[in-house]
Amino acid sequence: MAQVTDGAGSGVSDNFTATLSWRERWESLKAGMVGAIAAGLLFSLLTVLETQVLALDLPIRLSGLHRAWGISFLISLAIAMLAGFLFAVTYRYVIRQDQNFHLGSGAVMAFGLVRGLAQVDVGVQAQFAPVTLVIMVLESVLLFVGLRLVLDGAIAQGWLKPFSHS
Length: 166
Known about the structure:
Blueprint: E1 3-5, E2 11-13, H1 22-53, H2 71-95, H3 101-125, H4 130-156
Antiparallel strand pairs: 1-2
Helix pairs in contact: 1-2, 1-4, 2-3, 2-4, 3-4
C-alpha cells in the first residue's frame, strides 16, 4: 500500500490506492446508469411541471410542449443525465455503508448548488428576473434530492450495493 503523509510527518496507509475490484466497478456503473435514467425522468418531469402545470415561461426553459423535444431540451436533458450519472457514482462512494444523514445531504446540496449556481451565473449575465434565478437553484436541488431518494430506495431494495471497499 502507498504511504501518504498526514501533514504532521507520520505515514498513514492509503487503502483507497488499491485497485478497485471489478465487482465494485460494476456496482458503480449500475448506480451511474440508475442515476442517469432517474435524472432524465426527473428533469423531464420538472420541465413539464415548470412549463405546463405552473405555466412559467422562464427564459432558460421551454415555452411549451410544442418545443419539448427540440434541440434545447435534448441538450439540457443530456446534461442532466450526465450530472445524474456522476452524482450517483459519487453518492455511492460518499455514503458507503454509513447511516450518516449528513453525508448524503452534503452530496445532494453540493451537486445541487453547483448545478444551480452555474445556471444562475448564466442567468445573471442574461439579466433574468430574480425569481427565475431562485427557481433555477431550487430545480437543481430538487433534481438531486429526487436522485438521492431513488438511489436510497435502490440500495434498500438490494438492486444497488453501497461502496464497501475496506
